Amino acid sequence: MPLTRLAIIGPGLLGGSIALAMCERRPEVAISVWARRAEALKAIRQLVPAAFTSSDLREVVAGADLVVLCVPIGAMPDLASEMEPFLKPGALVTDVGSVKVPVVRALPPLLPRAQFVGSHPMAGSDQSGLSAARADLFQDAVCIVTVDADSKPEPQREACAFWRGLGCQVRTLTAAEHDEIVAFVSHLPHLAAAALVNMVVEQMPEALGYCGSGFRDSTRVAAGPAAMWTEIALANRGAIARAAEAMVEKLREVARLLDANDPDSMTRFLSAAQAERERLRK
Amino acid sequence: MPLTRLAIIGPGLLGGSIALAMCERRPEVAISVWARRAEALKAIRQLVPAAFTSSDLREVVAGADLVVLCVPIGAMPDLASEMEPFLKPGALVTDVGSVKVPVVRALPPLLPRAQFVGSHPMAGSDQSGLSAARADLFQDAVCIVTVDADSKPEPQREACAFWRGLGCQVRTLTAAEHDEIVAFVSHLPHLAAAALVNMVVEQMPEALGYCGSGFRDSTRVAAGPAAMWTEIALANRGAIARAAEAMVEKLREVARLLDANDPDSMTRFLSAAQAERERLRK
Hints:
The structure is a homodimer.
Chain A: E1 5-9, H1 13-25, E2 30-34, H2 38-47, E3 52-54, H3 57-61, E4 66-69, H4 76-83, E5 92-95, H5 101-110, E6 115-117, E7 119-121, E8 142-146, H6 153-165, E9 169-173, H7 175-203, H8 213-219, H9 226-235, H10 237-260, H11 263-279
Parallel strand pairs in A: 1-2, 1-4, 2-3, 4-5, 5-6, 8-9
Antiparallel strand pairs in A: 7-8
C-alpha cells in the first residue's frame, strides 16, 4: 500500500520531527497532525504549514494509510480505542514508545481493523518538545521495529520502509528482546545518569560548579523529561532492575581495583572499555 | 613578571592546545616546546611553526618566565629535577595534572629556584594527543589553580592570569579540595562510564549494536586514554572510592524505586536530577 496520507498523533519532539522530515523528503504525502491542546496545534501549524491539524481524532486519522502514535505509552490505549472506528480498514498503525512489550500486548486488540506494528526510533536523548524537533533527527538513528510470532510480513515491511525513508537504520527484534536491550543501553544509563547527578548534589553540591565537558556528557540524558522517563522506567522495571544490579556489581569491581592499587589490572579494565567505546560512533 | 617566554613540556592535547592558543592570543610571547620523541617534535613543528622545539630540556626552559608541565603526573618529578638547574631563577612552573595533592607535595622541593603553582584546566574529555589540539580548547573551560597555606600571592596571581588569558574560568581551591571535587565530577564519572561499557559488553554484548545518542553521550569519556586514566584513578583512589560507594548507594535507591513501582517517588527522583542537570551548561 503506497503511503499517500500520514497521520501523526502528538506533535512533540518525535511527532514534530517526523512531520518536518516528511515535508522535506516526501512532500507528496499529505500530513495530518492531532494534538489535544490549542497551543500545540498552533505551534505545529507554524512549524509545518503544509500539515492539516486538528484536535478531532476522527478528522486526523480519516483516510490515513499510516498512523504514528507519538504520545507517552500510557496514553496510547485510550487514543487507540478512540480512533479505531474512524481508521481506514487495513491502515498501518505504529508508535514511537521506548518500551515495547506492554505496547504490542495492549494495542492490537484495540485496533481490530488496523495492522499494528511496534516501533522505537532511538533519537532525541535529552531533548523534548516540538521546539527541539528537526528534519534530520532520524538521520542515522537506529529504529527498532518489533516482530513477533503473529506479525504479518506486509505491515512489517511497510513500517520498516517508513522509518528507513526518514533516514533511520532499521532493525527488527521481538518486543521482549527490544525491552531487554534498551534496558541496558538506554533505560539504565538514563537512571544511572540521574543517580550520578543526585549523588553529587547530595554528597558534594559545591562540585557542580567545577564540571567539565566529561560530566556534562555523562549526565546529559538526565535533563530529559522526568515524567516521560518515569513511565518508561516503570514499564520496563524488571529488565532495568537486572541491569542496575549488574551495574552495582561493576562499580564494586571498580572499588576493588582502586583498593588493589595495581596499575596493570586497572589499565586492563579501562583499556577494555576504551576499545569498545571507540568502536561506537561519536 | 611579564610573560615573554613560555616553555611547554609535552606536546599532547593540552600542551599543543596551549601552544595554539598562545599563538592566536599572544603572538608576542616566544614559545618553546619540549618532547622526548623526534616524531612528536616534528608534529609540533608542523602545527606551530613559530615555536622553538627541542628534546633538550635545557634549551627549552632556558630563559622561560613560565614552564607548563603537560605530561602524565608520574613523569613530572623526574622532569622537574632534570630541568631545575637550567630554570631562570624565580621562574613560574605549573602543570596540568588531573590530581593535585601528590603533585603539589612532590614538585616544590624539587624546584627550589622556581615558584611552583598547581593547575588543572578541565578540558579535553575523551580526546587525547596533539592531533586533537585546538586553539579554543580552553575557551570557557574551568581551570582550577591550587592554593595552599604556603602559597605566595604573586606566582598564584600570575598562574591565574595565564589561564584566564587562554579563555579559562579560573577558580582557586586547596589541592585536597580539588582532589575531592574532581573525584566526584570527573574521576568517578569516568570510571562509571567505563564500568557501564564493560557491564553491557559482559551482560548483553548484542545491545551495543542498538546504541542511541544517549548511550554515546553517557559513555563518551570512557574512550579516553586508559593509561592516563589509570594513573589518575590510582593517584586519587581514596576520594574516588568514597564517590564510588556513594554511587552504589544511589543505584540501590534506583533499584528500590523500580521495585516500589510508585510513579510519584520515581518522578521526584528524576525531576531532581533533571532540574540540576538543566542548570549546567550543555
